[in-house]
Amino acid sequence: MSPVVLILILFTAYTSYKGFKDLSFFHKYALKTDQVLVFKQYQRVVSAGFLHADWWHYGFNMYALYAFASSFEIIVGSVNFSIIFFVSLIGGNLLALFFHRHDSAYMAVGASGAVCGVIFGLIALFPDIDIRPLFIPFSFPGWIYGIIYIFYCIYGIKSLNDNIGHDAHLGGAIVGLLTTIAFYPEVIAANGIVIALMVVPAIIFLIIILKRPGWLYIQGFSFRVKNHRNVDDRYQDERYENQQKVDKILEKIHAKGIDSLTKREREILEKNT
């Protein structure tokens, strides 16, 4: 295992564990629509990738990172690998924010977008690489896995059948693949067809969403905290989140005056005071 991958795994273990034990830490760094889009806490787009809902969530992501990242880093180098990892993380979370921009309750955590970017970057370079998903007894050529996974993400985004951040996965995968191509454009000549088979369906899907946003019905959010929390715990979470919003609004009033508030901020203030 390379030092960069080891550092990512260990640092994510530390921050995820801290988030399990300290809800204020978790809520401070998780990806939340209002905190990013209204209160401009853009650091959450990155920090959310180092939090997880539980140890299963962490373990699954880090196993995938361990399985693919070391080989990928040897091929592309530590600097390019780090760029692809973080750009994929940001791209996945930005796509999730776009899809959920009208859902003030949206919250997500996890490194899945970054991991998908690493996997799809590797597929872009070596489409015939064998990939065997966890718990499946056989492997796929990488390009077949990539095509299936893209359509699975699209289906997951539309169906809302689970609590998985398919939007972040799709965004991370495509951004990771395109960033890898930017570093190694010669792969287009060698692997252009299979790359197109992965990228084009995603682009068509995104164009449809942009032109007909009503086609995408979004509700709920990905990866709520699942540590056997009861009604009182959820009530306290809501109180904490509301107080954070009010505090930010009061700070804004103090700095810029009450006339600087947006309509949404006024509604939040009236509701919670």
Would you mind describing this structure in some detail?
With 273 residues, this protein is mostly helical. It contains twelve helices and four strands. The chain has a two-stranded antiparallel ribbon with strand order 1-2. A hairpin with an 8-residue loop joins strand 3 (130-131) and strand 4 (140-141). Helix 6 (78-99) runs antiparallel to helix 9. The chain is globular, with a radius of gyration of 20 Å. Residues 218-236 have low confidence and may be disordered.
Q: Compute the gyration radius: what is it?
A: 20 Å
Taking the alpha carbons of the first and last residues, their distance comes to 53 Å
Helical proportion, percent range: 55-70%
Strand line-up across the major sheet: 1-2
Task: Quote the average pLDDT.
Answer: 86
Share of residues in strands: under 5%
Biggest sheet overview: 2 strands, antiparallel
How do the SSEs run, as a string of H and E? HHEHHHHEHEEHHHHH
Shape call? globular
Number of helices: 12
The counted number of beta strands is: 4
Low-confidence sequence ranges: 218-236
Instruction: Return the structural class.
Output: mainly alpha
